[in-house]
Structure formats: structure tokens, C-alpha cells
């Protein structure tokens, strides 16, 4: 049984404003919830239509609900057995070492989710997001990461001061950059990926110390650009294959 | 002015059944429509709220409409000045040479659109789609390709007979494949990419002659898999960088 107030609270968490106010977010599907539990995220409550689905969890944290109730709180088109509310973790400051990906105003939740999966795959532990980047606790991002968000530290920061001060080389992709295939890429670096429509912003561009490019092989000039998630895929693959 | 029958026809083209019946599809936004015009797709009619937007087109093919009318025929959340109806081209049989991408039941329109952009970027001229792959003339695919679909030949075929008969090596990505970074990849090959949820189907797997893998660098076993579009990005990049 879920109360009116709980329904109101959970549906409000679809909005960034209320996630920030309550410092809570929610995740759906057994698979994704399990990933957060395994990663020691602090659970507030699980709502589920299936008894015994989370036997490892303290039963006081589990609330049995009906399909109709699940529909009321879910953000999915097809709600799937369970929804869990977690506290947003407080990340201590991060260490500027290893390979760091920095996102300059990524707006699409699907792109952010895909990039988090890529960071997880390629062992990138820190993902820096500009303050205008879509919120990582947006339900669409949470679901599209398939749980890998529980293993990548996502930090919202003003990019400019960090990029200006860091001792790491700062890589950015530009049409006129040096081909990424010929570069000797270091293990420790920051890789900046730009906004879907506008690319890397002029202020951030000034902080880039290494301009690289993914060569195009199509036979005409028309090919616009790569989607930011596929460009991130190729770039991270190049950094790791070295 | 757009007639009731035209509205009915155009909105019906959001469904594959009616696209096949009429052998028509539609595209939206000036940018995307221009790409199809440049690529010599056969135009049936342009509907636009802006006079003079397509001065290169025979004016008998242009129909001036109101914003309200555009909303009625558009598949976009925010309709944008114009919509054009084109004939679906009839592709003659294709030549099995060069680098060919074959999709084994890709279901998500966004993934197909992204893969078409990748083919365009990496100079892949032929994209083979299994018959269960999402329809390329689906409005969501058309819009997400940003026009690059006009430069990639997309052919729906039974994959199995083609893969069994082709003399080209057939590459497929599998967890237990040889690392793609160490392979000498040929210029002429077929690269099979599998379904989002189930990967490459068992029947198609039997036709794969080269099992490859994109290595993972994350420190734990949990990382599921790469999204099919990002896996395609990395694979095509490896084939071309050689």
C-alpha cells in the first residue's frame, strides 16, 4: 500500500528541483535496483508487486503494492514489478588522475546514459559534468545506464576553473584536430566532449591543450558529425587500446 | 491548403503497412529534406509554411500550408516549417564488396538512425538489414539520421542465405572473440551487429567466420555490454584505422 503523500513525493522526483530538495532519486526494474544495492547506495524504500523479489533487503524497507499503484509512481511506459527510492550520494572531492571524461553541456538523457555505460566499460571512474549537463538522477538517465551509473562517479562542476588548473593534458575533438589514430595517447588525461548541437563551447575550447579529430571516410563533405555518444565510444577506445 | 485525404495519407505513412502499400515515406525539416533532394530521391510533394524555402524545386510540387495544417501532418513534437513526401527508392541488387554492415534484428529506431550516420561517416555504402530490423522509412529513423540516409544504401534481406553464400569474411562481436585491437582487419568484409537484447542470433552466429571482441577495461565483471550503436562505432573505427 502506497500513501497519497508517497505517490506525490515519488512522482515529484521526476523533476530535478524536487530531487535536489529531497536529495532522493528513484530507479526501476530489478536489475537496475540490484546494481544500486550492490554499490551500497542508501536505500530509502522499495515498492514491489512481487513478494520475495529482494530477499537480501531488510523487510522493513519493502512495501508491497498493487500493479495499479506501481503504475501511479512509475516513470516507465511499462512498469516492471518494482521501484526503489535511494538517497543521492554525496561525493567527496575527486582526484584528478587517470582518464577523466568531462561533458560540456550534454542535454540528452539517452546520450548521458550511454556515455556512463561507456565510462564503465572502459574503466573511467570519474565523469565530470558541466552544471548545464542533464541531471544524472533524471529517471531516463538512470534507466538507460542499465545500472552502470552505480560504478561511475558523476560530479557536477564548473568545467572552466578545473580545466584551467589541472595539470593533466586536456583533449577535445575538433574538425581541424590531429587524427586520433596517429596520436600517442597518455593514460592520465581529461577528454572533453561537447554539446549535441554546438560542440565544445568557446570558453572550454580555450582550456583544451590537445586538439584531436576522428577522421571521416565518407566520400563527400556532407556528413555532418558523429553523435556525441558514438564519438565518445571511439575516443575512449583509442585511449585504452594504446 | 492540405486536403483531408492528404492528411489521412500522410499520417498513415507513420505506419510501415501504409508506407509499403503506397511506396511513400516523408521527411521533415529543411535540412533533412534538402539532403533527400540532393540525393535525387523522387519528390512527390513538399508542404511548407514558408514561401520561397525551396526555390530550387518545381513550384507545382510545393503546397503552402498553415502552421495548424503542418501540426496535423507532422510526426515531430515541434513541427518545423516543412514536410516532404518522397517515393521509396527501388534498390537494384547490391554488389558484395567493400565493407558491408549487416544488422540482425535491430529494433530501436534511434539505434538504426545512429548506425546509418556511422556508415555514412566511415564510408560504408551498403547496410544490410534483416527483415525483422526496424523499417528505415520510419519517421523516427528518417529524422535521427540527419539526412545521411540519403547516402547509404539500405537493403532488407534474409541475412542467412546471403551470409552463407558470400565469399567475404563475416565478422561478428562476441564476448569470447579475439580482441579487435590485435586483428588485421581487411578492407572487404561483412560486419554483423546483433539485436539490442539478444545479440547475434544462433542461426546468424553459425555463418560468422571471424569472432571478434571489443575488450572491456572496467575493473568488475558487472558491466553488461555496450549499446549496439556504440559497439558499431568502435568496430567501424577499427576497420578503417588499419
Automatic annotation (TrEMBL), chains A, B:
Gene Ontology MF term list: RNA binding; RNA methyltransferase activity
Domain MRM3-like substrate binding stretches: 5-84
Keyword field: Methyltransferase, Transferase
Signal peptide: none
tRNA/rRNA methyltransferase SpoU type domain location: 99-236
GO biological process terms, semicolon-separated: methylation; RNA processing
Family as reported in the entry's similarity comment: Belongs to the class IV-like SAM-binding methyltransferase superfamily. RNA methyltransferase TrmH family.
Identification of the protein by name: RNA methyltransferase
Source organism (scientific name): Flavobacterium sediminis
Highest classification ranks of the organism: Bacteria, Pseudomonadati, Bacteroidota, Flavobacteriia, Flavobacteriales
Amino acid at each position: 500500500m502506497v500513501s497519497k503523500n508517497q505517490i506525490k513525493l515519488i512522482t515529484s522526483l521526476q523533476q530535478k528541483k524536487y530531487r535536489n530538495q529531497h536529495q532522493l532519486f528513484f530507479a526501476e526494474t530489478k536489475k537496475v535496483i540490484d546494481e544500486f544495492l550492490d554499490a551500497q547506495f542508501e536505500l530509502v524504500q522499495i515498492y514491489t508487486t512481487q513478494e520475495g523479489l529482494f530477499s537480501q533487503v531488510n523487510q522493513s524497507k519493502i512495501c508491497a503494492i498493487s500493479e495499479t499503484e506501481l503504475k501511479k509512481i512509475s516513470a516507465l511506459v511499462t512498469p516492471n514489478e518494482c521501484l526503489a527510492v535511494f538517497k543521492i550520494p554525496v561525493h567527496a572531492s575527486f582526484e584528478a588522475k587517470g582518464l577523466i571524461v568531462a561533458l560540456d553541456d550534454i542535454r540528452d538523457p539517452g546520450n548521458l546514459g550511454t556515455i556512463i555505460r561507456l565510462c564503465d566499460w572502459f574503466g573511467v571512474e570519474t565523469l565530470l559534468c558541466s552544471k548545464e549537463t542533464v541531471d544524472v538522477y533524471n529517471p531516463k538517465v538512470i534507466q538507460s545506464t542499465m545500472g552502470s551509473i552505480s560504478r561511475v562517479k558523476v560530479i557536477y562542476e564548473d568545467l572552466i576553473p578545473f580545466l584551467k588548473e589541472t595539470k593533466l593534458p586536456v583533449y577535445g575533438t575538433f574538425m581541424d584536430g590531429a587524427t586520433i589514430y596517429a596520436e600517442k595517447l597518455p593514460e592520465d588525461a581529461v577528454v572533453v566532449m561537447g554539446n549535441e548541437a554546438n560542440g565544445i563551447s568557446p570558453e572550454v575550447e580555450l582550456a583544451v591543450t590537445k586538439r584531436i579529430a576522428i577522421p571521416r571516410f565518407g566520400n563527400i563533405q556532407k556528413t555532418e558529425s558523429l553523435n556525441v555518444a558514438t564519438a565518445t565510444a571511439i575516443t575512449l577506445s583509442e585511449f585504452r587500446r594504446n
